[in-house]
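Reopening this ticket.

The earlier resolution said the output was attached, but the attachment link was broken on my side. Pasting everything inline this time so it's all in one place.
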Amino acid sequence: RSAGEADLGGPVMALLEKVDVDWLNRQPVYLQFAHGHGGHHKTRREDFVAMLCVTGQIALVDGVLKHAGRVPDTISLDEAQQSARVCAINLITQLNAACNGDLERVVRCVKLGGFVACDSSFVDHPKVINGASDLMAAVFGDKVPHARFAVGASSLPLGASVEVDAVFEIR
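Inline output:
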């Protein structure tokens, strides 16, 4: 094992030993250059630590859904970004509860997943989810950016415009 390489442990190594590399090399699979992304997120993370997954949160404030509808038909891009920010606040609320009120246990946000209610012509999903990413960077710092996806959906729970889930590294 080289310096900086993770110790995968017995069970994972046993699984990796079963991979038929020769067969894989004979397949018509060509890996492309792995392009990066800008902003407060990364394309991938490689960690084997304590993780806490928080399921999708929508923009509920005191039990009332904010910014319901589809982008850009019912709500604007700016309103959708505000909705993503509220989703991020709700993620942190759930995180705080899971950590028994001790957010000092949180090392960082590892991954955000964002769903945007929209029609098929809308293509600015990443701009919407930036509302959540920017808040996570402000709260937890952007020295170690999180991985992220942002996709469109024809509908979301309760008519929400945005839903965001997350994975956090905790101590």
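Reporter confirms the inline version is readable. The chain has a mean pLDDT of 84. The CA atoms of residues 85 and 132 lie 5 Å apart.
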